[in-house]
TrEMBL record:
Membrane topology: Multi-pass membrane protein
Location within or outside the cell: Membrane
One cellular component (GO) term of this entry: plasma membrane
InterPro entries registered for this protein in UniProt: Arc/bac/fun_rhodopsins (IPR001425), Rhodopsin_retinal_BS (IPR018229)
Pfam families with a match to the protein in the record: Bac_rhodopsin
GO biological process: phototransduction
Protein species of origin: Pestalotiopsis fici (strain W106-1 / CGMCC3.15140)
Keyword annotations of the record: Chromophore, Membrane, Photoreceptor protein, Receptor, Retinal protein, Sensory transduction, Transmembrane, Transmembrane helix
Record's protein name: Opsin-1
GO molecular function terms listed in the Swiss-Prot or TrEMBL record: monoatomic ion channel activity; photoreceptor activity
Major localization class: membrane
Amino acid sequence: MYLDQDFVVELLSKTTHVPLPEPTSAKPTPLPTVVPTVPRVTFETLHDTGKRTLWVVVVVMALSSLAFYVQAARVPVQKRLFHVLTSFITTFAFLSYFAMATGDGIGFHQTIIREHLKETGQHVVKHVINRQVFWARYVDWTLTTPLLLLDLSLLAGLNGASILVAVVADVIMVLTGLFAAFSNTDGQKWGWYAIACIAYLVIVYQLAQNGRRTVATKDNKTRAFYSSIGAFTLLLWTLYPIIWGVADGARIVGVDGEIVAYAVLDILAKPVFGFWLLTTHDKMSQTTPTVDGFWASGAPTEGTLRVGDDD
């Protein structure tokens, strides 16, 4: 079909145009600017230095235990009490360090760090820290430190009431340290830590005050030896809570540094302490008391019922 050109021009000139919207000054609504973030997760674990240190202490504790048992067999059974107690100390320490060196007796404590967002008023997780806690070490201390206290208490001649108070305070000290290591808040952590320090002061009082007063009635050699080895022990034990505070507590020292520090203290407080105690005790055997009765001879046989006798 043919369209007249003039007709098309006239039709287009009469077509109504739809006006475009005029620009306005209103600003567009902003989109939300809070973008969810993925928290950073880190693991604080031992490395080669820590692993090697654990195995070194395993060997030291094993050899020390063997030496103490041999040394015990060379003295009469009446004078063997200190040898047996000291041998048990290094034996329990050997078991604990062997467990840690092979990967047992280890747990993780998780610390969650949150950040406050001003835009939403919410607290979001920013950082998750998982740190290794060697709970086998606390089992070791629960068993070995009371035995060590028995060594010092018997050397000084403390009465049974003072020994019981010292041992119970020692167990409280170790257990509250374990609770602090796995606490979820700073209030719990440092609260348990404070209780542990108070328990330690009770131990110091029993050894330094009551022990010194009791040992004053003994001979000069015993008094001098107790003062020396007692001061040595209390000095080492004072360093333990300091290391805990900068390691498990404030997390300033890494896991490897913690392992090395505790390893040095454990070697000094157990094998070195044991060799010093037993060597000096054997030299003072003429002035130190002996343990007879059931310890040396067993239960008395007189007046007891013997199975199988006809009379």
